[in-house]
Amino acid sequence: MNWQTRKDYLKQFPVEIPTKAFDRYGDILLDWNERMNLTRITDEDDMMDKHFIDSLTPTLASAYEGTGKILDLGTGAGFPGMVLAMVSPERDVHLMDSLNKRITFLDHVVKELGLTNVSTFHGRAEEAGRDRKFREQYGLVVSRAVARLPILAEYCLPFVRLGGHLIAMKGAEAVEEVEEAKRAIEILGGQLEEIVDLRLPGGDERHLVVIKKVKGTPEKYPRGGGKPRKDPL
Ligand SMILES: C[S@@+](CC[C@H](N)C(=O)[O-])C[C@H]1O[C@@H](n2cnc3c(N)ncnc32)[C@H](O)[C@@H]1O
Questions:
Q1: Can you tell me which residues the record assigns to a coiled coil (predicted)?
Q2: If you measure from the C-alpha of residue 52 to the centroid of ligand 1, how many angstroms do you get, rounded to a whole number?
Q3: Burial, 218: exposed, middle or buried (Cβ in 10 Å; 0-12, 13-18, 19+)?
C-alpha cells in the first residue's frame, strides 16, 4: 500500500506506524479472502483508510491511554484489534469473535507477523460476558461494525472493569445511536464520557463514542438466547 500518500494524515496518531507489517497483514488478508469471506474492502486506498487508518483512531481518545488489557469484541478479520496490537506492542490485546473461521485466520496472522501480545478467543459476547475469566477484566473494550449501540453496550460493558472504558467506533448515525442507547448505558453501569468526531482521509465521517464504566453491570446482563439483539434495552 502506498503509505506515503497518507503521510500527513498519519502524523496525528500518537504511535509509530509499522507500514511494512501492515502491508504483510493486508497481503495475507487478500490472499485468504479468495477462499474465505473476510472482507468486502479490497481496493488498496480503501484498505488503507477503512481498515488500517480507521482502526488507528481509538488511539486518539484519551481513554486509550494506559497499559491495561484491551478487548476487541466482534473483531472479524482483526479490525481494529490486530492493528491496535501492532502499534501498541506493550499492551495485551484480546480478539474475540463468534465465527471460528475468523479465529483461524487471526491465529495465522499472529503467527506470520510474530505478534506476542495478541490472544484470540472464539466466543459470543452473551456467553463470554458472563464468564469470570472475561467479565469486568478489561480497562478498554473496542468494537467496530458489530451492532447498534443499545445492543453493543449490552455485549461490551460487562467486559469493562470499573473505571475502564468502551470505545464504540461509529459512523454518521453516532449521535442518534447514543440517544437510542441512553437507557441501556445507564442500566449496564456506563456513562457517556465523550464523542470524538473524525474524518477519514477519503472524507468519511467517523465518531468514537467513549463510555466510562462507573458502576458494576447487574448480574443479569448480558442476557442469553439472542435477547440483546431481539429485544434491545
Ligand atoms: C461486520 S463484522 C465487523 C468485523 C470487524 N470488527 C470490522 O469492523 O471489520 C461483525 C463481526 O462481529 C461478530 N459478532 C457478531 N455478533 C457477535 C457476538 N454476539 N459475539 C461475538 N462476535 C460477534 C461477527 O462474527 C463478525 O465477525
A1: none
A2: 17
A3: exposed
Q: Which letter, b or e, does each residue of 149-161 get, where b requires 16 or more Cβ atoms within 10 Å of its Cβ?
A: bbbbbbbbbbbbb
Taking CA atoms only, the protein residue closest to ligand 1 atom 13 is 74
Contacts of 95 (CB under 8 A, 6+ apart): 72, 75, 78, 81, 82, 85, 103, 106, 118, 119, 120, 121
pLDDT tens-digit series, residues 80-131 = 999 999 999 999 999 999 999 999 999 999 999 999 999 999 999 999 999 9
Cβ-based burial of 62 (10 A; exposed 0-12, middle 13-18, buried ≥19): exposed
ipTM over 0.95: yes
Rounded distance, CA 222 to CA 59, Å? 27
Domains delineated in the chain: 3-230 (3.40.50.150)
Q: Is 78 annotated as a binding residue?
A: no
**Judging by DSSP bridges, how do beta strands 205-213 and 160-170 pair with one another?**
antiparallel
**Which candidate, 19, 28, 15, places its Cα nearest to that of 1?**
19
Q: Is 21 assigned to a binding site?
A: no
pTM as predicted = 0.98
